[in-house]
Amino acid sequence: MSTIKVLGSGCANCQRLTHLTEQALAELGQTIEVEKVTDYAAIAAYGVMSTPALVVDEQVLMAGRIPALSSLKDALAERLAVTV
Amino acid sequence: MSAIAARTRFAEERHPRWLLGGAALAWFALYHFLLPFWDHLLYGAFTLPRGPHWADALHFFVYDSTKILLLLAGIIFAVRILRSFLSIERTRALLGGKREGIGNVAAAGLGVATPFCSCSAVPAFIGFVAAGVPLGVTLSFLIASPMVNEIAVVLLYGLFGFKITALYIGSGLAIAIVAGAVLGRMRLERYIEPFVLDVAGNGGGAGMAEYKPTWAERFELGVAEVKTIVGKVWIYVLAGIALGAAIHGWVPADFFVRVAGAHNPFAVPFAVLLGIPLYSNAAGVLPLVEALHAKGVAMGTVLAFMMAVVALSAPEMILLRRVLRPQLLGIYVAVVAVGIVATGYLFNAIL
User: Fold this and answer.
1) B122–A45: do the CB atoms touch at under 8 Å?
2) Out of A14, A20, A43, A48, which one is annotated catalytic?
3) Which pLDDT score is estimated for B253?
4) Within an 8 Å CB–CB cutoff, is residue B350 touching chain A?
5) Which of B133, B142, B199 to substitute to test the interface with A, most A CBs within 10 Å?
6) CB-nearest partner of B122 from A13, A40, A60
């Protein structure tokens, strides 16, 4: 089972990325819970310097930007090895 | 297919540089014909009389608000595209090997040029420290970033013209450089919260591969930024210009001149003290700045007030408190505040 985390202090953009990720996962037919990481020490330990960031299986997929839904779906599908 | 996907595909199919050129041309044409357009519409089609206060105020309002919104949209778009060539990771790499001094100058410049939201101040601070960027250099970056931002620059230009805007940019950079250099000299590293150094020791900030957007994505970033910022600030801009339009008509201007004119030596520090706990972005505070200035408060005093509001806001200090112990945070606020007060006096003396 993959783990998916959104790193961010809970700002508006972080919530947007969380919703977008949930939507992308739903459209890919995945039932993975999106975990929110708000602790700064934990965020920094990933080497992320701009939030929000998306982490899949402990690998930083993107940071400091909100992707378009379509490109987010592509990126997640590739990481999770899902065929669309 | 979503509208965004459709637009991105359009941008990819047509050469995106042509699209950019077309957008720039359309923008300049709009900007150029704005004044004749409103002149024809108001005085021509609606047969407004030239002369009465209310007609002039109406013309001022529609012309100035469309002009400033157009300026805002154009500048935000252009700035976001230019900034897409930089990233916070890149900036950190550029600052990593810099000594203090040169490093402070570079950090202030990069603070303006790097796409950065103050909500990322904490992870950015940790990442800089982890990469060995000196504390004073890091602070120069954090001071310059909110102080010299494109909204402030556009609105200042729209409301006060070129000279004031250039002075604001120059002094904002100077404050960031000098305050960062002074703080660096004070050897305050022991007042950084210990967990920051632990993360740094763990190799936190190893980072990931840098993300290189395509031209179509840069275009998309620009459009998204314009929508977000203009969507957020347009109401403040309109309110500020409406206030300005009203003030242009009737200004009972003696109270402020008495308490905060150029001759009162306490006006500048008082304005700065007042500005620190207030939190607003440049778009929210500039209407107030315009109104205060129109009522006779000296230019240096209102600019110092504005700098204190945008550069030393309480919410950002609360964020920074996570990584800076109270002693360091207190010294940081004091040094930046002294820099702003000095700038205020300087402006009052030379303007």
Assistant:
1) no
2) A14
3) 54
4) no
5) B199
6) A40
pLDDT 10s digits, B182-208 = 999 999 999 999 888 887 666 544 555
DSSP assignment of B95-120 equals: HHTPPTTHHHHHHHHHHHHS---GGG
Q: Model pTM?
A: 0.82
Asked if residues B191 and B139 have their Cβ atoms less than 8 Å apart, the reply is: no
In this structure, the number of other CB atoms found within 10 A of the CB of residue B337 comes to 22
A18 is catalytic: no
pLDDT given for residue B140 in this prediction: 96
Give the β-pairing of A34-37 and A4-7. Answer: parallel
What ipTM did this prediction achieve? 0.82
Q: What is the DSSP string of B180-208?
A: HHHHHHT--GGGB-HHHHHHHHTTTT---
Place of tokens 């240096």: B300
Residues 8-67 of A with CB under 8 A from B: 8-9, 11, 13, 40-41, 43-51, 59-60, 62-66
Helix ranges (H only) for chain B are 3-13, 16-38, 53-83, 88-96, 102-113, 121-130, 135-147, 150-160, 162-185, 194-201, 215-249, 254-260, 267-275, 282-294, 299-311, 314-320, 326-350
Sign of CA dihedral B95, B98, B100, B101: negative
Show the tokens assigned to B243. Answer: 């206030």
CA-based radius of gyration for chain B: 22
- What is the residue-averaged pLDDT of chain A? 87
Dihedral over alpha carbons B236, B119, B302, B114 (to 10 degrees): -100
Q: Residue A19 has what pLDDT?
A: 93
DSSP string, chain A: ---EEEESSS-HHHHHHHHHHHHHHHHTT--PPEEEE--HHHHHHTT--SS-EEEETTEEEEES----HHHHHHHHHHHHT---
Strand order in the sheet with A4-7: A34-37, A4-7, A53-56, A59-63
Token pair, residue B344, equals 């205020």
Q: Which residues of chain B have pLDDT under 50?
A: 1, 204-205
A20 labelled catalytic: no
Quote the pLDDT of residue A43.
87
pLDDT at B196: 86
CA distances from B46 to B37, B40, B55, B241, B307 (A): 12, 9, 11, 22, 42
